[in-house]
């Protein structure tokens, strides 16, 4: 499942720097996550790096993009090739 950043984002940018897939970018008011690039760090790390470093605890699973761990691994493999 891709992740999403909610309105509690404080625009610090820490999450953007830690995303191995470059899925996080500045939005109009808050940072946003591109669900086509987000693998929840599957293929890179055991835990989602953005969630680990978020200062405002505003990153959650995006219910609009439900994916299994296997699907996230496949997405990672496609992006890595």
What is the helix/strand order?
EHEEHEH
Write out the strand line-up for the largest beta sheet, numbering strands in chain order. Answer: 1-4
What gyration radius follows from the Cα positions, in whole Å? 12 Å
Percent range for helical residues? 25-40%
Characterize the biggest β-sheet: 2 strands, antiparallel
The helix tally amounts to 3
Residue stretches low in confidence (pLDDT < 50, at least 5 long) are none
Basic shape? globular
| Count of DSSP strands | 4
| Overall SS class | alpha+beta
Average pLDDT figure: 96
Beta-strand content estimate: 5-15%
Separation of termini? 21 Å
Walkthrough of the structure:
The longest helix has 12 residues, at 69-80. The protein contains three helices and four strands; from the N terminus they run βαββαβα. With 81 residues, it is of the alpha+beta class. It has helices at 14-18, 49-53, 69-80; strands at 3-5, 24-26, 31-33, 59-61. The strands form two sheets. A two-stranded antiparallel ribbon has the order 1-4. It has a two-stranded antiparallel ribbon with strand order 2-3.
Secondary structure layout:
Layout: E1 3-5, H1 14-18, E2 24-26, E3 31-33, H2 49-53, E4 59-61, H3 69-80
Antiparallel strand pairs: 1-4, 2-3
Tags for this entry?
globular, 15% strand, alpha+beta
Can you give me a brief rundown of this structure?
This protein has 81 residues and is of the alpha+beta class. The protein has three helices and four strands, in the order βαββαβα.
């Amino acid at each position: 499942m891709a992740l999403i950043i909610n309105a509690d984002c404080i625009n610090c940018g820490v999450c953007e720097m830690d995303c191995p897939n470059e899925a996080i970018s500045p939005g109009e008011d808050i940072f946003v996550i591109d669900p086509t690039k987000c693998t929840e760090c599957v293929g890179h790390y055991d835990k989602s790096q953005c969630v680990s470093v978020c200062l405002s605890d505003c990153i959650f699973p995006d219910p609009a993009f439900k994916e299994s761990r296997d699907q996230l691994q496949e997405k990672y493999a496609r992006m890595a090739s």
